[in-house]
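SECTION: protein entry
WANTED: fold as tokens:
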Amino acid sequence: MKAFRLDINHDYDFEVLALISPEKDYKLVWNINKLLNIKLQKDSDLCLEFDKGNKLIFSNFKYDTEYAGLRLLRNRSFDSLDSKPFLLPELKEYDYIIKSEGEKDIFNMKEIKEKLKSLPLIQYIRKIEIHTLKSKENLIF
């Protein structure tokens, strides 16, 4: 019998910033909301389940407009015994991920990055090129 292979090409139409911040997520979100004049709100936790029964759970904050969305995700799972409990394992030194999707004019990531640099809670911030990430599929949801 002939076997068929299904190739799926995902659309990575989003931008990502990675942050280093030792602060709790709710405190960081409050400061980001105040600085950017938005309303990131707690959304249901992001849960990734793998073939071997491993499950990773990440805190998830979301702000949506009519044409765009912004998310703050914790990079480290808070409920895992896994040896690699990261949303993006190649960025394990970063604590948080900010994902912007939709219309690029609404959330200008360059401006957001510059504004976030002024927050004393954030030690370091970097724009991440999606095509360089091996685990970029973890950000599709």
The first strand starts at residue 14 and ends at 20. The chain has one domain: 14-139. DSSP finds two helices and six strands in the chain.
